[in-house]
Write a structure and sequence with these properties.
Helix content: under 10%
CATH class: Mainly Beta
Radius of gyration: 13 Å
Strand order of the largest sheet: 6-5-4-1-7
Shape: globular
Number of helices: 0
CATH topology: SH3 type barrels
Order of helices and strands: EEEEEEE
Largest sheet: 5 strands, antiparallel
Mean pLDDT: 89
Number of domains: 1
Distance between the termini: 19 Å
Number of strands: 7
CATH architecture: Roll
Structural class: mainly beta
Length: about 90
């Protein structure tokens, strides 16, 4: 599975540290949203009206207490998918 085949409800992980660029209300600019490897859930997949070839992923990442944080718009290179066969339990 890769990011192009994701559907709402799928589990994703932050591919790198993500910080608020100022677009999330009630959160200080540059505040940490997710550390690299933080688990999240895909809420929706969309495209820019002016550039339909540009895909944006709406994700809620887990906080330290494992509750879901606010929805965050992510570019494809900001999230990754781990194949379930590769996860060691």
């Amino acid at each position: 599975m890769n990011v192009n085949t994701l559907e709402p409800g799928d589990t994703v992980y932050a591919a790198r540290e993500l910080r608020n660029d100022g677009s999330i209300p009630n959160m200080p600019e540059n505040e940490l949203i997710a550390k690299e490897g933080t688990r999240g859930v895909l809420i929706n997949v969309g495209h820019f009206e002016e550039q339909p070839e540009v895909t944006l992923y709406l994700v809620r990442f887990e906080n330290q207490d494992l509750s879901l944080g606010p929805p965050v718009g992510c570019w494809p290179d900001e999230i990754r998918v781990i194949e379930s066969a590769n996860i060691e339990e």
